[in-house]
Recover the amino acids of this structure.
């Protein structure tokens, strides 16, 4: 049983960077809003969240509560959640409300975080950073005891996965622009992990673009 | 660490019933085909699968490999897999090929297994059987050490979740008919769990119909 230390939630007015190709754990208290900013316009953030108890301690591994895309789709009866929708946990409870999303495009709930195997299948020979690795590194550094072999489905902010006739999917460039942002209001204490997706083989982060930094604010 | 006993895969020619509202664990060997039959026509089966090693022992909890809907959508670039498509694990490896699916309708990958909370939210006061409970009961009885608090997204066979304009979802009656079947060829040894969905509050299993038995064959 790991030592479950309390995490310190960030003060109102805090802000920071989510570096290109990297993950960052961001504790968010109940009632706080997290503003995620697509600083350069085409960067996808893989967004994960894990519940903390009332003293900001991680829940024990036997009582894991985390953001779940299957329950978010079912809770909103929509593939891609939009302003006013809720983000739901694996227990069907609200974790966040999407207060605002300025991009005319949506956010993807259908495809998994990139991982080492994804890059191998794309022909990359050497090590390549991935959202799955970023997630587990960030959780480990934060002391959150999530089973290393599991990677929940992320909310892929600004990721553009058009659903075509007959349910066919595609990977397209984001339609978001510089400065587009999403505001998520937390309804529970939680540890958020954001990964500025390191994908540079497919156009997930824009044609001919390198992964770029994003920024966040808490208020 | 639980005792990881080998499971016995079923012989070619075996067959059986998946009772209405109940779950059943079915070990399937690499190369075997599992035929799932919608005996009465409108019954949804929540389908889960968990890898076994070459001696048919469960993988240890730190190396969980299980059927993943997010990776199945991404692997086929399609929301609903069809004949000829593969079903992928959380490691992006093939677990099954869909050899045949006779229903003109598809199979759902978008919504979660029903669970106790789902029925509470639908206004059911007393205990109600659920696919999540059926899954965990079946795994426990089979001796498969899957963490009880996790319920992977199921492949909801014959479940009709139309995707409408703008990505809105609905729950509709299955379009499958008596005797429709799906044949899944296993590319790895695995433990399948099928739950004949106990949903009787929404039209998931047909308007005005009670959940009904389904059947399976191994060959």
């Amino acid at each position: 049983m790991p030592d479950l230390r309390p995490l310190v939630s960030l003060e109102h007015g805090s802000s920071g960077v989510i570096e290109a190709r990297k993950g960052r754990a961001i504790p968010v208290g109940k009632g706080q809003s997290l503003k995620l900013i697509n600083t350069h316009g085409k960067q996808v953030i893989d967004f994960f969240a894990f519940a903390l108890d009332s003293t900001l301690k991680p829940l024990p591994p036997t009582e894991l509560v985390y953001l779940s895309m299957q329950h978010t789709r079912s809770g909103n009866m929509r593939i891609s959640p939009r302003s006013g929708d809720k983000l739901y946990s694996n227990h069907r409870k609200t974790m966040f409300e999407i207060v605002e999303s300025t991009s005319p495009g949506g956010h993807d709930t259908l495809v998994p975080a990139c991982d080492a195997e994804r890059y191998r299948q794309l022909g990359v020979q050497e090590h390549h950073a991935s959202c799955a690795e970023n997630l587990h590194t960030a959780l480990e550094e934060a002391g959150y005891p999530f089973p290393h072999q599991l990677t929940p489905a992320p909310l892929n902010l600004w990721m553009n996965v058009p659903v075509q006739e007959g349910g066919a999917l595609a990977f397209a460039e984001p339609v978001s622009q510089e400065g587009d942002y999403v505001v998520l209001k937390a309804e529970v204490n939680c540890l958020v992990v954001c990964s500025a997706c390191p994908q540079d083989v497919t156009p997930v982060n824009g044609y001919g673009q390198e992964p770029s930094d994003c920024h966040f604010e808490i208020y």
